[in-house]
């Protein structure tokens, strides 16, 4: 090696910020304005939302649904604390719900609970709506919200807040669930 460096240009930076032109950047935290793991359009287009579940299955070698199911056992254990309440009065919040696949599994495990999902991406919430609200089951409420700062949402869950989040936050919020 002669000590010289190889300059690859700025393509990787451009690809990380490859978002739809109509994105209203003021609506999102800075870290959200990138295409994580080369996700097409970041998380901000219907095209991206349509590809997401397949891409996650490929990324995790077909185990994404099994990973999501890991939330069910601790959730059911936690729900035992609310055994004195009517099943229909239970509310479960899924923070960063994405396309709603975790909520789909929670619904199968706890069919009488009221389910609410939040996500920053309207496109992903639309995809979640297609997965969750097509059929005879009770409607799942889907709300565009930043899971890192939604204390108003927790007031809707009194006196029985039950929260799940299968994905990692950029940083752990001080007082979210």
Overall pLDDT:
78
Counting copies of identical and different chains, the oligomeric state is single chain
Shape: globular
Helix content: 25-40%
Spatially, the strands of the biggest sheet line up as 3-2-1-4
Describe the structure.
With 177 residues, the protein is α/β, with parallel strands linked by helices. The chain has a single domain (13-169), classed as Rossmann fold (3-Layer(aba) Sandwich). Helices cover 33% and strands 10% of the residues. The chain has 7 helices and 4 strands, in the order ααααβαβαβαβ. The chain has a 4-stranded parallel β-sheet with strand order 3-2-1-4, with helices on one face. Helix 2 (46-59) packs across helix 6 (122-132). The longest helix is centred in the first third of the chain and has 14 residues, at 46-59. It is globular and about 50 Å long. The N and C termini lie far apart (53 Å).
Supply the key terms.
177 residues; alpha/beta; Rossmann fold; four-stranded parallel sheet; 4 strands
Task: Describe the secondary structure blueprint for this structure.
Elements: H1 11-16, H2 46-59, H3 64-69, H4 72-79, E1 91-94, H5 101-109, E2 114-119, H6 122-132, E3 141-144, H7 151-155, E4 161-164
Parallel strand pairs: 1-2, 1-4, 2-3
